[in-house]
Known about the structure:
alpha/beta; seven-stranded parallel β-sheet; 7 strands; about 55% helix; binds magnesium ion
Amino acid sequence: MDENKSSDRLDPQLLDGAQSSAFVPKKRFKKKSEGQDLSVDDLAKGVKSGDRGLLARAITLIESNAEHHFQKGQELLQKLLPDSGKSIRIGITGVPGAGKSTFIEAFGTYLCEQGYRVAVLAVDPSSSISGGSILGDKTRMGELANNPRAFIRPSPSEGKLGGVHRKTRETMLICEAAGFDVILIETVGVGQSEVVVRNMVDFFMLVVLTGAGDELQGMKKGIMELADAIVVNKADGENKPLAEKTREEYRRIVHFLQPYTKGWPTQVTTCSALYYEGIDGVWKIVNEFETKTKESGVFEARRRVQTKEWMYSMIVDQLQASFFHHPDVKFLLPKLENEVITGDRTVTSAVESLFKAYLG
Ligand SMILES: Nc1nc2c(ncn2[C@@H]2O[C@H](COP(=O)(O)OP(=O)(O)OP(=O)(O)O)[C@@H](O)[C@H]2O)c(=O)[nH]1
Ligand SMILES: [Mg+2]
């Protein structure tokens, strides 16, 4: 896509070079990690040693849409791969306003108090359009953002097709190599991204509000079927009895659904993210899930399948990008599209022509 646009999202330090020195009248003394491009080895060592600045730069490299950053980013990942995989990966979804960010703030803070290190990532395919709702979230997650045991990373901007997903996955691996024990991935509820996040985490959580019936009218049933736990949030004040009633309704409903994870019936609980109530109960559920699925082998089996599927989805993404960026395809597409719309040509014939052009 737009390479120039992407580069202004880069860490300015990555771009720091000859041109910036023109603005610096006197010689400035820099630490080695500042300024010029670091080697892959330096970055890998920095990430593994828990250097937050270098972790941020490593992620910036992974997120960059520039061709030469891509190669370097992949070398870095290759180096960090043996140190990845040791965290528990948790996806969190729910309708806007359900309290996902507030929950992450409470849950993340609780985990830090328990001695864990927590990384928070977000998948928001719309962030490149809206400029990123997570900026607002970082202030909403004020306490967690300032916690030295936590690391919050906004959603990457879209570079090419499938970019957000690749970047989030790879960022997750880097965070694991940096020693984070729990990875929380918030998804902004736009249908598709829920499935994508489900496919990159061990445990998937749906945050809901009171009134199960209303939600079921909408798309939530499909999402419910992906969840390992449903958390009825805002169980506080006057809303508490209603939240408990809602919990019972959800319990009845999930009873009739096929659990997403073999041997793990979907759990339903209540919490108040705002008042930090019931947060420990959610962690207990995650722990039980981890123990049980590791014993049964479901945990490892899922990760293997996820990695394999990731490879295939990346192949599809790359093929798609390569197809639509092909100059002959680009040239023919508007004309053929028009012929198909006006009924002058069949879809099959148009597609055949495009593939002929693509394959030369
Ligand atoms: N009473 C009460 N209010 C809550 C609770 N959790 C969140 N809220 C409020 O609900 C509103 C939405 O919370 P967010 O955490 O921003 O919700 P979200 O799901 O992240 O929303 P989006 O990011 O827009 O999808 C805020 O005003 C919160 O203060 C809770 O447990 N109890
Ligand atoms: Mg939010």
